[in-house]
Amino acid sequence: MEYTILILLLPFLSFLLLGIAGKWFSHRAAGLIGTCCLAVVTILSYMTAYDFFTMPRTAEGVIEAMPPVVNFTWLPFFAEGLKFEMGILLDPISVMMLIVISTVSFMVHIYSFGYMHGERGFQRYYAFLSLFTMSMLGLVVATNIFQMYLFWELVGVSSYLLIGFYYTSPAAIAASKKAFIVTRFADMFFLIGILIYGYYCGTFSFDFAGEARGFAAGGFMLPTALLLMFIGGAGKSAMFPLHIWLPDAMEGPTPVSALIHAATMVVAGVFQIARLFPLWIQYAPDTLHIVAWVGAFTAFYAASVACVQSDIKRVLAFSTISQIAFMMVALGVCTEITTGHEHPGSLGYMASMFHLFTHAMFKALLFLGAGCIIHAVHSNEMSAMGGLRKYMPITHITFLIACLAISGIPPFSGFFSKDEILTACFAYSPAMGWIMTAIAGMTAFYMFRLYYGIFWGTENKQLHAEHTPHEAPLTMTVPLMVLALITIFCGWALNFGSYVSADGRDYQIHLDWSVAGTSIVVAIVAIALATFIYARDKQPVADKLASQFSSLHKWAYHRFYMDEVYQFITHRIIFAHISKPIAWFDRHVVDGFFNFLAWGTNALGFEIRGLQSGSVQKYAFVFLLGALLLLFIMII
Amino acid sequence: MNFLSLFVLIPLLMLLGLWLARGLKGVRTVMVIGSSALLLLAAWLTVTFLSDRAAGLDAEMLYTASFTWFEPLHIKYSVGVDGISVAMLLLSSIIVFTGTFASWQLKPLTKEYFLWFTLLSLGVFGFFISVDMFMMFMFYEIALIPMYLLIGVWGSGKKEYAAMKLTLMLMGGSAFLMCGIFGIFYGAGGQTMNVVDIANHTGGAHPIDFAQQCIWFPLTFIGFGVLGALFPFHTWSPDGHASAPTAVSMLHAGVLMKLGGYGCFRIAMYLMPEATNELGWIFLILTGISVVYGAFSACVQTDLKYINAYSSVSHCGLVLFAILMVNQTAATGAVLQMLSHGLMTALFFALIGMIYGRTHTRDIRELNGLMRIMPFLSVCYVIAGLANLGLPGLSGFVAEMTIFVGSFQNADTFHRVLTIAACTSIVITAVYILRLVGKILYGTCTNEHHLKLTDATWDERLSVICLIVAVAGLGLAPLWVSNMVSGGVAPIIEHIGHGVSSCNPFI
To answer: A-contacting residues of B 381-410, CB under 8 Å?
Structure first.
């Protein structure tokens, strides 16, 4: 499918055009260029998906990865087997990601027309969106780990540029810097992992079957390399303790949060593990359990913080962290690669990808809905909201659909994917299963707390007196409706397992009713609890709980002071105790030595210049002394 | 007459032209014609070189020519180029061309300024085309002396101190160097000064004794290392760069510092392979320190030029670090890093000069919100910053990745641990670059004097855009440069071979 290369080229061209010549375009023209490009990319992605999944399967019913459509050496490394290639690899997960990215990105492009209307730097905004889309698409179709790393860095930079879009606001500047540096720190481990991987296995390629000899030679260094790469993935996917950048990243424009910090870039870490999954499962199954437990802890941590945040985008950010952790857990609980219902050990892989797909849609929907709300009330704080359901009916309904989906209520998409994850967890260990079920309950609770806080409860009359909230324009509501439709239908209408599974075979999704029933009950109880506490005008229970457990509430509200820990490490330790002393040492010791040398030469010259006094008597005296000395030496 | 000599002849003609030129217009005309001619010549040389290599000319040095200059010491004027020097010549000509436009508005004494500037570039070009040790040394000195006057007369801040310090430290380095060069000359039999002859034991040269190598290797390596900002001999760099006028900083950080790395590789390591294997680890540790230490120092500086100077210490440290890894990939990466660092640091210094020319301050605590006031310069500054921290698609990424992959191919733990340590610099680089960008470009401008400042003029734009195109070109399509450079690196690395040091306590 040679046309697939256009999927990467078009957004890149659009970025160049808008980036270089953007200021000569009107807002409308710039937006149209970006959006049209994305429309073409979306169509091409769907064509690719159609062509790919309708290809004949092998005799065992396996969907095979195509040999790379394009693959060329971009940078040679002059060592055997090592070269930096660029190409396009189509296999079930990369094709699925193409669909996710292009769909969400296209929706965000349309939505931004309304949301960013009249903003300064509108052209720049679309240029960055194009850059991001190109990098993200390049990341998922990478044919080797180095190409992935290249685009990985590029998405990091586009995220940096977009978070810092409002570059005059100090909060945005700080947030963009933080996001970049934290992920860069994680990327360093990724890079080291790649180096180890390349050295021991002698390849960077994703052709695992073809290079099997190299992997066996890796020994225990291969799990090490994979773990280091996972740290890189954990940075991008905001796993504890590298999650701190994501909540702050909400300073960027809301559509950007929807695209980058909810649907696509933050799942790159999950995608990375899925991409290297054959290696994990074959050579490092024990290390994979670390992934599961890191994920489980992150899911719990983020869910508990999300329960008490008051900024709606922060709630959504923590919910994103928690949901991505669900995907990580699902990958981590895999123990084997063969599928079939008698082997639930590889169910997690499919479940994780399925959840990635559904989550991208409903989380983008939630963020875009939040964007409409922020657009209407000009604030992120829940205190400014309440009672909005009558002003914004479309936003209200679509937001509710997304909330139900994320809580795991059938027939919305989230139910199906989360149920598969829980089944996989129970198959791994009952403890993990119950933990994740409980966290799923917390999810339903905080999402409905958010929902009631925004659309029910008391109106903020004081604020609305100046400015009545209104429904968003059509450019913003149409994407909401499209995503809501996907959320309603894709869970049961799409047979996801037949396209994506650990070994490429058709995997028929069966609902395990013992698990599904439990999770539905838990979700309904949690929603009922949230309704009981938050749906009323006044919230006596919530206030009482908050005051009763005030210290816990305070800790959770401040995200367990993780940011302060980082502040301490960077400012107090790195800046004050490493950088400053080094700079001082350089100026005073190293440079001081050379200055001393110069001064010493100077001073010595000053001292001995007295010898050249110009008085003949003195010269004669010294001459005589020298002659006597020589005579003396010669005699002895 | 060999056409490579044009690289020396054109600057000589430019000197003559400048001497005869009348008025500002005449000076500018001479400079534009001369530097464009050099740029075209370098581009033409690159194309010819690539096609000749493709046609199967596989001698180590192409287009060689030799004339006896001083018989008793066997000093010859010998020229020749391989992949490395072609890359360096191309880099130098780009920097000279853009440097001319970056100092378009320079006053006073424009004519004298350009005279020294041209003399400086003459030295640089001469150095890269020479294959005779003595000629290299002579051109090196020619490049060094004008620096003193350029900084002392046209500089800013503590310029006399900085000029004195820079010149004295580099002179100290060349004292070491001269001892080293004569040591090599006599050690190899005292029959030839030609680098290729000495290395291959032809033309009357015989192998240098191992014991002698162990003396001359450190001398030459330190001698060139001073210029390549080897820790702890790098302290001329922050002061020198901070005081130098824009184009001089560009040329100095962009090209002159590369003379150090080039010399270390071509003379110190190539001619004394056994000593390189035996003693290289000491310098490897020093360069490893440079890489991390420079980056950490840059984090807390408050002067724009100091930040960039320390960043150069870190990046040039990586060059020396990579060549000491003695493998083809890393050494290719080192040359790519020279190119990349040369281009982006020149871009940085050009932009800093332009900002300083408007605001009259380089203190980052006094600058803020420049993005709104001078969008063009600010956007270019961000691009330069991103290139510096290794954004894919710009040159830094290509060079750094080649270096890291290459360095990691060494079989022993010592080299690999150092590589991992050097990898940390990519994070620290991000810290200081983003801190800088966030402080001076973003935010709102609070200084009302800065509100009325104007954006770049056409000559400044031309200079900056040329550099950005070069940086992006190298970053997007690195294959041909990489292949060209590695063709030059391969014989040298093969010659040095791989030996295990007997005195390295870490192995």
So the answer is: 386, 389-393, 397-398, 401-402, 404-406, 408-409
